[in-house]
Specification:
The chain is mainly α. It has eleven helices and no strands. It is globular.
Length: 237
C-alpha cells in the first residue's frame, strides 16, 4: 500500500481553475479522438505526437520571426539567445518522434486508413519553418555587410568577431538539426511502411530521400570547403 502520498483536492469544478482556464485544457484535451472512436489503440499516441509537433513548430516560427527583427535591429545577444531556444525545440522534436518507434508496423496499419491522403508534408507548422528559415540568411548577411565583413573572413578571424561567429555557428546548428529531423522522419516512414512503399500522401520514398540534400544555409556549408582549400594551400594539415 502506498504511503506518504499527499493528495491535493481541487476546490474548483472541472475546467474552472485558473490553471485550466489559462491553458485552455478543456479545449486542448478534446482535440484528439475520443477513446471509443479510436480505430486502434496506438492512434491516440499518433495524434498526440503530431499535435505536439504543430505546437512546437508554432513556437519555433514565432521565435524565428522575432529573431529576424532582432538581427535587423542589430540586437545580436538576444537574437542568439532565441536562436539557441529554437535549436533546443528541434532536439525536443527528435525525442517526440521517437515515441512513434514504440509502435509496430502492423499496429500502424491498424489505423493508417484513417489518415486518408494526409501526409506530414501537409503540416502547416512544417511549411511555416520551411518558408521563414531561409530568410534569416538575408538578415545575417545584412549584419555582415554592416560590419564590412565577408563570411570567409569571419571564420578565419572569429576571435575578432566572437558574437557574429556564434550566430553563424548557431545558424548551421539549426540547419543541421532540422535536416536530422527530416532524415529521422524518412527513416521512421521506412520503418513503418517499408523503403519501397508509397507514403500516405502518395509520395514515393525515393522522392522523400532527395529532399535530404536541401539545406537552409548553403553558404555556411560551402565556406567550410573554402576554409579547407585555404588550409591545404597553406600546408595546414
Amino acid at each position: 500500500m502506498a504511503k506518504n502520498i499527499t493528495h491535493h483536492p481541487t476546490k474548483h469544478a472541472r475546467g474552472q481553475s485558473t490553471y485550466e482556464r489559462y491553458l485552455r485544457t478543456e479545449e486542448l484535451l478534446v482535440l484528439q479522438k475520443p477513446e471509443e472512436e479510436l480505430a486502434h489503440h496506438d492512434e491516440l499516441q499518433f495524434q498526440v505526437v503530431h499535435q505536439v509537433f504543430e505546437l512546437w513548430w508554432k513556437e519555433a516560427d514565432f521565435e524565428l520571426r522575432t529573431i529576424r527583427t532582432l538581427l535587423q535591429q542589430h540586437n545580436l545577444p538576444r537574437a542568439l539567445h532565441l536562436l539557441r531556444r529554437v535549436i533546443s525545440i528541434q532536439h525536443l522534436m527528435l525525442d517526440n518522434m521517437r515515441m512513434l518507434e514504440t509502435m509496430s508496423p502492423w499496429d500502424f496499419h491498424g489505423f493508417r486508413l484513417e489518415l486518408g491522403d494526409g501526409a506530414g508534408t501537409d503540416s502547416p507548422g512544417f511549411h511555416a519553418l520551411m518558408s521563414i528559415s531561409p530568410l534569416l540568411w538575408d538578415d545575417f548577411v545584412q549584419v555582415l555587410d554592416r560590419e564590412q565583413l565577408s563570411l570567409i573572413n569571419l571564420y578565419m578571424h572569429g576571435d575578432q568577431h566572437p558574437q557574429l561567429l556564434e550566430i553563424a555557428e548557431a545558424l548551421i546548428d539549426y540547419d543541421e538539426i532540422f535536416q536530422v529531423f527530416r532524415a529521422m522522419h524518412l527513416k521512421l516512414a521506412q520503418r513503418m511502411i517499408g523503403p519501397a512503399s508509397i507514403g500516405t500522401g502518395g509520395t514515393p520514398m525515393e522522392l522523400l530521400a532527395r529532399t535530404l540534400q536541401d539545406v537552409f544555409y548553403p553558404e555556411l556549408w560551402e565556406v567550410r570547403n573554402q576554409l579547407t582549400k585555404i588550409a591545404d594551400e597553406r600546408g595546414l594539415k
